[in-house]
Each structure stands twice: as structure tokens, then as C-alpha cells.
């Protein structure tokens, strides 16, 4: 086994933006279905890599027992963007991320696969000055597993030589579907089978071990 590709989620992996987005989701729920805000926030946190539009659809099914309309989807998508985009762009990078990309950029292809809408993801990474590190940047749609498969197809490497770095169950599930290795960021992965840490300051050690295992 060797290390031939690294794929990063964005929120909570590249940028410390999870809290800003969670607050935005909570604010929207408070406006439309305040009784469901606590449950909605729990769902949002657990499904970090899921598109915001799928999250809005979940809220409407739970609160109103119906599907969200296309008009409502666009309204809440616009509200969400207004509430959190500036905060995300201004958020710090996850500790250790800069060391990781500086070490591996130019050595193996780096990609981003995120539940953030594609056009918005590209703009955020551009404004953060990070877009130049990545061979490919993929946002939703489609779902996370298909984003990983798209990156793998573009890179042309075996999934077994690829590490997905994520911070949610959705990311881990996508890695399982795509057949990649996985490294988790955050307490969700404590006492689970994947390698993990509180941030990315130990990620280079793990990547080095994967790289050396192929020699």
C-alpha cells in the first residue's frame, strides 16, 4: 500500500467553520420551527457532510410532515448563505492543516470534497488563499460518496492508496463506500475503528506511515 492521493472535507477539517454553520442552521430553525431546533441541531452535527438542502428537507419532514418546496429550498438556502458566509471566510484554519498541505502539495494530488455547494466552496477557498493547493475542488451536488468517487476517477489512483480526512459520520460512510482509507478529526471518532485526533497536528505522522507502508 502507498499514499497516492489525499481528499479533505472542508468545514471542520480545513476551516474551523462548523460552529458558524451550526449557529446559522439553528437560527433558521428558530424562525420556521422553533420546537424542532434542538433535534435539528443534533441532526446537523451528526450529518456534517450532508448538503444543507437535504438538512432543510429533513427539518420540514419532521416539523410539518411534508416535503419542502423548491421555493422554500431557495429561500432558506439564501438565508443560510447570508447568515454564515462571512463568518466562514473569516474563521481560522484547523490546527495542523497548513503543515499537512505544505508537506504533501506537489508530492501527491490533493482534493476537497465537501457538502458545501460547489460555487460557494470554490469562492471560500479562493478567498482564504487555499485553492492553489488542490488539484480538484468538489462541492455538492452530488452526495459525498459520489464526490469522492469523482476525485478518485480524476486522480486515477486506487482507493486503497487514498486517504479521506473528515469530521463526520457522513465522511466516514462515504470513505467506506468509495473504498478509501479514512482519518477522523474530532471526538465523534473516539473509541471507533478509524485513526483520529482532536485536530490535524498528528495527521502528517499518519500519512507518513501510510506512505512508508508502500515501500
Please describe what this structure looks like.
Helix 6 (118-127) links the parallel strand 2 (110-117) and strand 3 (136-140). The protein is 51% helix and 13% strand. A 6-stranded parallel sheet has the order 3-2-1-4-5-6, sandwiched between helices. It is built from 9 helices and 6 strands; from the N terminus they run E-H-H-H-H-H-E-H-E-H-E-H-E-E-H. It folds into 2 domains: 5-16 and 93-213, Rossmann fold, CATH 3.40.50; 18-90, DNA polymerase, domain 1, CATH 1.10.150.
Task: Offer a quick outline of the entry.
This protein is an alpha/beta fold and 215 residues long.
The H/E string reads EHHHHHEHEHEHEEH
Provide the spatial order of strands within the biggest beta sheet.
Answer: 3-2-1-4-5-6
Which fold does the CATH topology of the largest domain refer to? Rossmann fold
For the record, the CATH class of the largest domain is Alpha Beta
Q: Rough shape? A: globular
Average residue-wise pLDDT: 95
Helical residue percent? 40-55%
Q: Which regions contain 5 or more consecutive residues with pLDDT less than 50? A: none
| Number of E-state strands | 6
Total domain units: 2
Termini distance?
Answer: 8 Å
Strand portion: 5-15%
- The CATH architecture of the largest domain comes to 3-Layer(aba) Sandwich
Radius of gyration: 17 Å
Q: How is the main sheet built?
A: 6 strands, parallel
Q: What is the number of helices?
A: 9
Q: CATH-wise, what's the superfamily of the largest domain?
A: HAD superfamily/HAD-like
